[in-house]
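Example for reference:
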Amino acid sequence: MTGIEGWLEWLENESMRTQDPSIERVGRRRLYYQIRPVVPVIQDGQVIRVRRAIKLGYCDEISLSEAKRRKAEIMAAINGGNIFVQAQLPLKALIERFRTAHMPALAATTQAKYDSHLRNYIEPGLGHLRLGEINRAVIAEWLLAQQHLSKATRLDLRNILASLFRCAIEWKLWAGENPAHRAPVGRGAPVREFRRLDREQIVRFLEEIRDTAILPARMARILAELCIISGLRVSEALGLQWRDIEPQQQAVYIRRRYARGTWDEPKTASSRRRRIIGRLADELLFLRPPCAADDDPIFQRPDGRMPDDRDLQQHVWRPAAERAGIYHAGFGLHSLRRLSVTWRHELGVPALEVIRQAGHSRIEATLRYVLEDQQREAAVVEEIRRRLRQ
């Protein structure tokens, strides 16, 4: 057994037995206390057991009672399976185990992101270090050195490192606190600008959507309206199939998502939900091809392939927004989902319902979606000033 699997086998075997080596008095010129427990070491990529002498102290400096106390501390760490593991196991070996034992349980899009960040950043930057050489200061220094990356990417890297060490703790390969927890990543401006759009601007945008090789104008317009009305994520809207439409209830059911060539389960348990879309359900069914099967995707390219959100952004949403005079950095189909959450908040929908309708798991995520109404804010400011003048 090689690599981290050898460590795990050793830990499993050692956890079934407790070592209690005797204290020996050795030395030629000067006697000292020592113990000789069996410990694991890496040799030629394999984990082997060797008996190693550990000095407790010179006999003329410490008493036998002190030697016993030091032995108890050392053996607690050895019997707990932590000593020498952190000192010798490379982070790269932990990453290999993480890829095979943890990542397959994640969503496909999350797996792709984790794999990319591990391969491009974490392994080249930290993979050569042993676990015992890594602490919060090392991780913070490395993250702060990645200023060429956006703050969002640095946060992703910190989260992946935290996940790595959570697994190490679970596998008994790490003792103590998670060194990546709340490690500083440095400052950074938001990558996207969240600009509020009014009703007239949205109507102009919808009217400017044209036929493309990605989607016909009518289908693209319905896709945009669907995200505004229901607040669906782009991947959730593209993952809809004809069987997901319920005409009697004028609703759609979110059962899956599609993102850049990958079909997957909804993002969270809260994302699996039913959304009322009103007469838009009838409009969708009116456009259903006679030969379409129930499990065919609703939104397909004219050539039968699935559309990519990046192609939609480049060839559909951005050109329409530019023609409507509303394009800004960060504008896309996700802006319409954000607008949907904002409008529901303004219409007085209870916060708990907005959270469920958006498919969020935490209220903090929903609150970040709500954009301020500048005109209403200006009116409030004027009213406050009027009261001050009175």
